[in-house]
Amino acid sequence: MEKPSIPKGTRDFGPAAMGKRQFIFNTIRSVYQKYGFQPLETPTMENLSVLTGKYGDEGDQLLFKILNSGDYLKDVDSAKLEARNSKAITSSISEKGLRYDLTVPFARYVVMNRGEITFPFKRYQIQPVWRADRPQKGRYREFYQCDADVVGTTSLLCEAEIVMMIREVMKGLGVTDFTIKINHRGVLKGIADTIEATGKETALYVAIDKLDKIGKEGVSKELSEAGFAPDKIELLFNILNTTGSNEEKRLALTALFKSESGQKGLSDLKTVFDLLEASGSNQSNLEFDISLARGLSYYTGCIFEVKVNNVAIGSVSGGGRYDNLTASFGDKENLSGVGISFGVDRLYDVLEELQLFPKEIQRSSKVLICFLDTESMRYGLKVLAALRAAGIASELYPDESKLKKQLDYANKKMISFTIVIGEEERKEGKLMLKNMDAGTQEKVSLEEIIKTLST
Prior knowledge:
With about 450 residues, this protein is of the alpha+beta class. It has 18 helices and 16 strands.
């Protein structure tokens, strides 16, 4: 018999792991709600017509496609089948795909429900997404994203608040050493104009986006193969190597750029920096990264990426402004939006590596009721009901077992308190409350127990 297994790039999460994941979810959710975002969910599947063409050529190749129901090959042209070209028959055998991210489904939702939405519309969404990527550390084929987007406004206050939200989330998770990288697609266009890359912008941005992964030599090779002249590649790296504070880099590029797009990008960044300063939020961990490109083709304004320093994992969050996403769905009054997404799985690996998960998050119950005989078990049912009525997470050990086994169960589940009930406790009306962490115990009334455990 074949041993059971799960697909590569996916994982099971037991209770201990889920406690940690819920800590991440709850931290992010609480920050999103504090900033006025409302919850939303969209289907696991989307029509391929919704997904295709929104992520660039590389993104399209990573879409998981779902075969049509029934005999999906019956209507396929026999000549195409004999050619054995899978791309040629994809549209005939697959109409749906698993969502690649949460932003495109969100844009589709906005277009479909425009008449019911109050703009600006602020929504957050915490759901899994799927990408047919090569599995590796920090990169999975199935993973959760935690998105927050604002659509229906071009105000750069939204970008400033994204920076504030990122900081609050990281603080809530206990991460202190991290960098929020920010750039603007207008700045990238300014670079493209300066090195005379008109018509080859996409190749330029894709190559620049790989700088952290393949280095200067790898990017130079890729650009050379794409037809960029050596002197233009050298000029590009001179620009990318601009140093100094955020403002010093911005001023240096302001003096260099001649294009309207480049100047607009730098102006937007200055506004974001000014809004952050006005809010009392400093720029200590905010870096104007000229080489930040982010591969998704729908970004049009500010772009963000968050990296935890001294951890060998890629970015844990990213996002940006998209001014033309709803237009791809035939939206006549195109809506501007801006959003941020946290990768829960990468955050999990970061917190695990840095040992930042609080111990208490793995505790499912606060108290376990132990009993010494059948009558005590029945007595314990009333105690259990009273504890739960008071909002105290409680459980009663289900089997008649030795007290040691019951206490071992409490220790393994990291339950902080146990109540031991025997004949003597039933008669006295006072129960033995044991603090499992401190190793202390005392006999007290049920009312006193509830008061102690409720604090």
